[in-house]
Amino acid sequence: MAKQLFIKTFGCQMNEHDTEKIAGVLSELGYSLTDSPDGADMIILNTCSVREKAEYKCYSDLGRLLELKKKNPDLLIGVGGCVAQQEGGKIVKKAPYVDMVFGTDNISDIPKLLEKKVETSKGRVSTERRRKGLTLKTEKVSSLPVLRNHPMMGYVNIVDGCDKFCTFCVVPHTRGRERSREPEEICSEIRGLASAGYKEVSLLGQNVDSYGKDLGNNVDLADLLHMINDISGIKRIRFITSHPADFGDRLIDAMVKLSKVCEHLHLPLQSGSDRVLERMKRNYTYPEYKEKIRKLREAIPDVTITADIITGFPGETEDDFNKTLEALEELQYDSIFAFKYSKRPYTPARLYEEQVPHETGKDRLNRVLEIQNRITLKKNQACIGREFNVLIEGESKRDKGNMTGRTRGTKIVHIPREDDISAGDILTVRITSATLASLKGEVIR
Ligand code: 5AD
Ligand code: SF4
């Protein structure tokens, strides 16, 4: 029987896709995925360290895994992802029963790390050896085997790492410098997805607008979108995440011209105050950001726009914070991800004086969510009576009587299940009701 592998994923889409690669590499070694940690032969935590809470969860989960290891001493435990990259050997010190630690760039080294584990099966792999799984590579991202989790949507890395060094963000320290994949390699992966029946691709990068800068072949994200748009079988193309300093006219033009590129932009604002943006080293002002949104909406009036917001960044005054609230009212996002600032290792902002008290940051986060929830609900309700093109993703998780899909603008839509509707279908749906989280509708035949 195949050995059972359980992977728990924390964090962003990039991590979700890394999990698909970890599963791909391990499936070649005879492992198959299971939904439950109980009875698994190997458990891997694919960790996130973007905020302290996520890192904390990794350690509390490791505590629970010790109990499983006591019951089954042959259980192999691995820690991958950003916490592994950031903490390295410290993980093994805190949790000596961990068998393997590998960073975001070392998924391809898993077989070697496991071999060493087997070699030293009397003891565990030494800390020194385990640390070898943590080198940030500067070479081009390789294409690893991928065991995909979604039946019709494929994640595709286009650029790894980040060179922006925003003063709050640990990502450049965990994922290293920007490295773009060659366009031909990306297109060939997507052609493979298309022939396997995939309908949608999400192009991933911490900063997709930087795509190609390091390749020296004059191909940017807009050019890449043109190439992918020509791949038959693929119906929808998304890209995440854009950076307001780099997002510009060429991309807007590509979004307008290319029929498969979805009308959605995720453009993290972080703060509405220029003083804060400057201290975050974001390289744009609020008026510049607003002007880009204005141009985008002028070109694509129906575009869905989402963003990330941070509250309680060091030095954020009530006045600064009010500018963020005003920005939310002014920009009318479809939805946002909002976070309370969290001190991260290696980042300059952790040393800034004037750290905002926890309670203030939390209170500001609640005020942001209150305003945005009202806007999101209003925007969702404005969809009632309108028709959308919906790609069905499968059965609804909450209600087996429903199927779930997404609009091109990435809004979740539930429709009543019918025998002739299956995952991968693209249907016209009229929206009949809306909540904060999703829309409900009926299929137009
Ligand atoms: N504290 C709070 N939020 C953060 N983010 C990144 N680093 C931090 C931090 N230290 C948020 C940003 C980013 C999103 C992925 O996570 O809003 O856009
Ligand atoms: Fe972090 Fe800034 Fe890079 Fe985004 S652009 S990953 S926030 S450093």
Uncertain residue ranges: 118-129
Cα-to-Cα separation, first versus last residue: 46 Å
**Which class do the helix and strand fractions yield?**
alpha/beta
Helix content bin = 25-40%
CATH architecture of the largest domain: Alpha-Beta Horseshoe
For the biggest β-sheet, the strand order reads: 2-1-3-4-5
CATH C-level class of the largest domain:
Alpha Beta
| Number of contiguous helices | 14
Look at the structure and name the CATH superfamily of the largest domain: tm_1862 like domain
Beta-strand content bin: 15-25%
Please state the oligomeric state of the protein chains shown: single chain
Determine the CATH topology of the largest domain.
pyruvate-formate lyase- activating enzyme
Question: What's the average pLDDT?
Answer: 92
- Shape verdict: globular
Number of strands: 18
Which keywords apply here?
445 residues; alpha/beta; Rossmann fold; pyruvate-formate lyase- activating enzyme; OB fold (Dihydrolipoamide Acetyltransferase, E2P); five-stranded mixed beta barrel; 14 helices; 21% strand; binds 5'-deoxyadenosine; binds iron/sulfur cluster
Tell me what you see in this structure:
The protein is of the alpha/beta class. It has 3 domains: 3-130, Methylthiotransferase, N-terminal domain (Rossmann fold, 3-Layer(aba) Sandwich), CATH 3.40.50; 153-380, tm_1862 like domain (pyruvate-formate lyase- activating enzyme), CATH 3.80.30.20; 387-443, Beta Barrel (OB fold (Dihydrolipoamide Acetyltransferase, E2P)). It is built from 14 helices and 18 strands. The chain has helices at 13-27, 52-71, 82-87, 89-94, 110-119, 127-131, 171-175, 183-195, 221-229, 249-257, 274-280, 286-299, 318-331, 358-381, and strands spanning 3-9, 31-33, 42-47, 76-81, 100-101, 153-157, 159-160, 179-180, 200-204, 236-240, 264-266, 304-311, 335-340, 387-395, 402-407, 412-416, 426-434, 439-443. The protein has a 5-stranded parallel sheet, sandwiched between helices. Strand 1, helix 1 and strand 2 (31-33) form a beta-alpha-beta unit. Helix 9 (221-229) runs parallel beside helix 10 (249-257), helix 10 (249-257) packs parallel to helix 12 and helix 13 (318-331) packs parallel to helix 14 (358-381). The protein is globular, with a radius of gyration of 22 Å. The model is unreliable at 118-129 (pLDDT under 50).
